[in-house]
Structures
1.
Amino acid sequence: MRNLLLVVFMLALGGYSFAEETVQTGTSASEFELGQMNRDFAAALNAKDARAAAALYTEDAVLIPPGEAPVRGRQAIEEYWKGAIEAGGVRDVSVETMDALSSGSLGYETGSFQLTVNGPDGEAIVDRGRYIELLRREPDGRWLSTHGIWNAAPEQ
């Protein structure tokens, strides 16, 4: 099932031929390596640094927030997170990798998150959810997100 998911994600990313990937395959990244992008992302939000958060996405990345229009491109992603930080007081962000896999320079990570935001009345609201990141290894070895989507975790 994991291999089927990886094939689907690889096809969704487009722009890569399987022949190119076969030549560049090398070794697969570890779950820890693939999860680093979101650990760095959580640290950037905790530091209220939208620019650092956006730097973890490719220039042409697409962010797909729940119930909102897609956010396209690193600059727009930076503005999105800047607005979220300013409006909601995003803080206490943590992530946990649930699954991750790569093949060549493409990979994915699924995980869960928890963060605190200010509600309309100023009261702290703890938000829990799940996410998936489609990742691409850059020439410098860093894994950046090409597509990110998240949703709320089911009530327990």
2.
Amino acid sequence: MVLRKKSNCPELQPDMPTRAVERSFNAVPEPEPEPIEPPPAILEIVEVRAEFPGGMAVLKEYLKTNLSLPESVISGTVYGKCYVQFVVSAETGAISNVTLRKGMPDCEQCDKEAIRVVKNMPNWIPAKNNGKPVDSYFNLPIVFKADQ
């Protein structure tokens, strides 16, 4: 077998720069991948806050009706506020991510009761930015007093 050098192919020299060989063929370019949207942010500051259906007066009535006061509150030895934070969904107004931001130092039962009542709330009216519903945080103070 005899190997022949093609006349149009240059010899490679050690000091000769190399370059990429371009080919032209009918290749279909790969489509660009669709951008992956990050999950929507949960906003703390919004133009229109999330709202309990019926407003604040109905929320107060809901809390008054559904809070079970611990014995220490009923007897008048303990009173105070719990601060509960939760997320109101933009899609449905559902409550999620319920956390106790500040509890009552003398009443762990009050803290648990505040979380229970918030978790059982009906769906809220979502917050809005630029006229569109957005996921948002809501901080709710819940007062524990004997004369509620």
3.
Amino acid sequence: MRRDQTELPSLALCALFAVLAIGVTLLSGGVYRQCTTRAEKTGTGRTALSYLTNQLRRSDRAGAVEVTSFGGGDALRLEQEEGYELLLYCYDGQFRELYAGVDSGAVPADGTALFPMEVMSVRARSSRIFLALTASDGGTWETSVSLRCGESAL
């Protein structure tokens, strides 16, 4: 008789432990999903800003950086080796780059799509370039880059 009396509480404790373990697993799955979704949203914007910043720093020399418009929005034109340029812009819901000859007659659709992004805003003030990216969900990311060669780069 004593054995039967101890088996019932033991089984109840095991069942309670199993139910709690399943509950914790389900809850942590939801938290993980939220974290990865948030990281994806912010990761794209941060990656695009990092890419823009590195391209600007790479082209930081006198007369090599120009704020212009291309594809119906703001763009950066970065002079490359003789006769070539790199255009960075947003077009058709994508952040794009276009490496082409200076007078090649390229159109915005020719660029390579890098990231999903709706709008890129570029402003130059003195030797500083202000960049803002806006995603289709309304998220925005901003940064500024000070060119080392000063206003002569613009």
